[in-house]
Amino acid sequence: MMADDLIILGVGVHAVEMADLVDRINAVRPRWRLAGFIRRRTDRTVETLAGRPVLGTVEALAGWSGCHVAFEHDFHDDTGLAVERWASLVDPSVFVAASAVVGPGCVIYPHGFLGAAAVLGPRVFVLAGSTINHDCVLDDHVTVCSGVTLAGGVHVEANTYLGQSCTIRQNVTIGAGSLIGMGSVVLHDVAPASVMAGNPARLLRRKET
């Protein structure tokens, strides 16, 4: 199988780690030719990152017809690219159940667990050592920090941020746009746009929408 061209969208620390993730994937089976990085329009200009070129802003993608892209979790510039060109990067150490679904544009760092019938929507970003148990559903643009544990049947709605080492009880729904603080233990459903923290987690405030 021939490797496909890949560009990482973003130039932050996670983009550097994603380049290492590409190398780990290719060590098992050559899959990607990493051409370089694209910076946000608001980023300072840099020429190289992790030994590879920074190709410019999203306008530079016009010169890479057919390439795939992988998104850093906070890259929001509009690329105009079809979802078919969104690459998912899953570290070889991650357990992915045969019935689990990984959507387009997802990134899963090492030593994770994705259980039976779990579903990740588009552009879910999962940091190291996180457990997403059976029948969980994560909608688009969810960020899962390191060491998070989701019990079975959890539903995390779109644009939610789950802080490091938080735990979500089974069958709980986390409303869209919420932020769950690090180390929190969530025992009940969370309304959209909530900021939660503590054990058990309590509402700190509502986010402005």
Please give a structural write-up.
- The protein has 209 residues and is mainly beta.
- Helices cover 8% and strands 31% of the residues.
- The chain is built from one helix and 24 strands.
- Helix 1 links the parallel strand 1 (4-9) and strand 2 (32-38).
- The longest helix has 16 residues, at 13-28.
- It is globular, with a radius of gyration of 17 Å.
Largest sheet: 8 strands, mixed
How large is the share of residues in beta strands?
25-35%
* Total DSSP E strands: 24
Specify the helix fraction band. Answer: under 10%
> Gap between N and C termini, in Å?
46 Å
- Determine Rg (CA atoms, Å): 17 Å
CATH superfamily of the largest domain: Hexapeptide repeat proteins
Tally of individual domains: 2
Q: Strand order of the main beta sheet, please?
A: 6-9-12-15-18-21-23-24
From the spread of the alpha carbons, the general shape counts as globular
Mean pLDDT: 96
CATH topology call of the largest domain: UDP N-Acetylglucosamine Acyltransferase, domain 1
Which parts are unreliable, with pLDDT below 50 for 5 consecutive residues or more?
none
What is the N-to-C order of secondary-structure elements (H for helix, E for strand)? Answer: EHEEEEEEEEEEEEEEEEEEEEEEE
Instruction: Just name the CATH architecture of the largest domain.
Output: 3 Solenoid
CATH class of the largest domain: Mainly Beta
Q: Structural class of the secondary elements?
A: mainly beta
Number of helices: 1
Write the layout of secondary structure elements.
Elements (H helix, E strand, L loop, with lengths): L3 E6 L3 H16 L3 E7 L9 E2 L2 E2 L14 E4 L17 E2 L4 E2 L4 E2 L4 E2 L4 E2 L4 E2 L4 E2 L4 E2 L4 E2 L4 E2 L4 E2 L4 E2 L4 E2 L4 E2 L4 E2 L4 E2 L4 E2 L7 E4 L4 E5 L3
Parallel strand pairs: 1-2, 1-5, 6-9, 7-10, 8-11, 9-12, 10-13, 11-14, 12-15, 13-16, 14-17, 15-18, 16-19, 17-20, 18-21, 19-22, 21-23
Antiparallel strand pairs: 3-4, 23-24
